Amino acid sequence: MSLGTIVAFILGICTVVGSIVSATDRPMAFIDIPSVIIVIGGTFVTCFISYETKVALQAVKTLLRPFKKYNDMNASLKDEVGRMIKWGYVVQKNGLQGLENEVTEQVRQDSPFLAYGADLVVTGYTGAEIRQILEHMMDEEGARNRIATGALMKMGGDAPAFGMLGTLIGLVIMLSNMSGDPASIGPSMAVALITTFYGVILARLFCIPMATKMNARFDRTELINNIQMDGLVLLAERKSPRYIQDKLNSYVDVKDQFLIDRDMNKESSAAN
To answer: What average pLDDT does the segment 25-37 reach?
Structure first.
């Protein structure tokens, strides 16, 4: 589970509920089932109208994905560069057979993209061919991810609109009853405005933040995949570990770069 996301979400809910409770002695006035139906029902129905069912379902599932742990957000770019450099030494010493031995089941489980690319290197594709294949793979994966988050962003835009629709419905009902008891106008107006309140909450606390979080995660994964792809291309071209170091360190902040003379010696000393 993503503890940061869970804590932030709970704090967001507490902020809204706390402000309501501290501002009125009738917090239950903010609960209105017809308003909930209009906003949530309308937002989700519009998503299914706008997109194919599979994409719409994927967007709904994306609402919950930010609460799950995302390993790539904590992955070290320095470690990825270091892995490519170590594989460079393996290929230099043992050839492609040595690289094949480095792709363990754990690597295949943790990083399917890296394992797939390493298999391409072992097969004997050229660096240019590997880059072409992996770039196409990344583009397609990115397109699939962006469709879901795009649908979620659209839901964030639709929710306030349905909140306004519910408000208009409430105002029409209120105005049609004005010939009756004037004292009922105030409560009716409050109920009408609650629908807009629900629309803003659904958009700004659920849909848009979740889509933004997932886009940030996809960007991080894409960065790691680019490091891995460039590293694999350099391995296929039989570039030296020093060249791999200098090329891949361009992805990493200067203070966090992997240096062979410093970091490889540290690991060798630790192993001994």
So the answer is: 87
Q: Residue 272 — very low, low, confident or very high, per pLDDT cuts 50/70/90?
A: very low
Same domain as 78, residue 191: yes
Report the C-alpha gap between 227 and 255 in whole angstroms: 17
> In angstroms, rounded to a whole number, what is the distance separating the alpha carbons of residues 207 and 153?
6
Whether residues 3 and 106 share a domain: the answer is no
Q: Say which residues have a Cβ less than 8 Å from residue 231's Cβ, sequence separation at least 6.
A: 80, 81, 83, 84, 87, 244, 248
Query: What is the pLDDT confidence band of residue 150, given thresholds at 50, 70 and 90?
Result: very high
Give me the domain span that covers residue 83.
32-271
What is d(CA 62, CA 68) in angstroms, rounded to the nearest whole number? 10
Q: What 3-state DSSP class applies to 24?
A: coil
- Residue 119 amino acid letter: D
CA 40/CA 159 separation, integer angstroms:
7
Token digits for 184?
């009922």
Task: Please tell me whether residues 151 and 171 are part of one structural domain.
Answer: yes
State the amino acid at position 50 in one-letter form.
Answer: S
Q: 149 with 211: CB under 8 angstroms? A: yes
Cα 81 to Cα 260: distance, rounded to the nearest angstrom: 10
3-class SS letters over 29-55: HHCCHHHHHHHHHHHHHHHHHHCCHHH
Please tell me the predicted confidence (pLDDT) of residue 32. Answer: 86
How many domains does the chain divide into?
2
Q: What is the pLDDT of residue 70?
A: 84
Q: Are residues 101 and 164 in the same domain?
A: yes
